[in-house]
Structures are given as structure tokens and as C-alpha cells.
């Protein structure tokens, strides 16, 4: 059984999902792939301990307090490859960015392969079911392009600015498929 609740944030209304014990989803209103990893209907239930912990985490995050990802019981639903990519996302320090190709190199090492497709990594990053907490917004293109955020580029920019990322070498692309 899966439960949901909402959280009003500075970047819009957030839907949280849990399995009763673990956070399994966090989506921004209108986000691409909203709720797509949850295999059944969610029941509205705000008073679970995991939702209380997640809302406290989000309050701290939006207050600039840099809460640790490990403070929350996370259980994103996805296959082995996606889980591997999401694990790497959890290692990106607050206020820093990494490229898709940087993650691909780490995944290649993890999977004992010579190389890994940045596009495959991009697909896994884009389907991250626990946005903000699993910080997919910290992933950028190899030349500094702020592409590929399911919650919208404007939200990605806001989150990176919120974290104090040096935005001087980053840019919003003029055109592309992930805008």
C-alpha cells in the first residue's frame, strides 16, 4: 500500500509518496513522470512518521541548512541500473554539480565496464522518483548546459541558486528536447 501527502514549497507544490516506512516519491506539481514508479493508487495520509521526517528535511533544505540525505529512509522504485545512478546522485555534495558524462564514468567503474552511455545515464537521472532529496538537479551537460530536469529548467536554476552553486559557467540552452 502506498500513501501520499503534499508539501507547499518555495518551488511549488510537492507530492510525497511512501510505502508506510520509506519515502518512495517526491514530485513537483506538473513534473514529468509524476508518480510513474508507484505500481498502484496512493491513499492520502499525511500523518506517517516518514512524511513528518521528509517535511522536516524539506523545511531544513529550504532554510539553507544542508540536511543529509541519509537522514531519511529512501526506497526509490527502479531497476538495478537506475538504482546505481540514483546512488551516485546521492553522493553529489550540496552546492556542487556533476556532468552526465561524469556519472557515466562512475557507472562504468561500478559495472566493471570500459565505458557507459551518457544518454542512458540521462534517462535514469530524468526518471529519478525522489526529486530534490536525490539531487538530480545537480547534474549538468558537459559544457555547462542546464538541460534535463523533469521539474522544469526554471526550477533547476532556482534549486542550484538556492544551494549557492556558482552559475557563471552554466547556461540554459536555447533549444533542445529536455527544456
Task: List its traits.
16% strand, 179 residues, four-stranded mixed sheet, Arc Repressor Mutant, subunit A, alpha/beta, two-stranded parallel sheet, 2 domains, Double Stranded RNA Binding Domain
Write the layout of secondary structure elements.
Layout (H helix, E strand, L loop, with lengths): L1 E8 L2 E7 L4 E6 L13 E3 L4 H14 L17 H10 L8 E2 H11 L7 H9 L12 E2 L12 H10 L17
Parallel strand pairs: 1-4, 5-6
Antiparallel strand pairs: 1-2, 2-3
Helix pairs in contact: 2-3, 3-4
CA-based shape: globular
If helices are DSSP runs of H or I spanning 4 or more residues, what is the number of helices? 5
Q: Trace the largest sheet across and list its strands.
A: 3-2-1-4
CATH topology of the largest domain: Arc Repressor Mutant, subunit A
CATH architecture of the largest domain: Orthogonal Bundle
Summed over residues and divided by their number, the pLDDT gives a mean of 93
Q: CATH homologous superfamily name of the largest domain?
A: Winged helix-like DNA-binding domain superfamily/Winged helix DNA-binding domain
> If you compute it from the alpha carbons, what radius of gyration comes out, rounded to the nearest whole angstrom?
16 Å
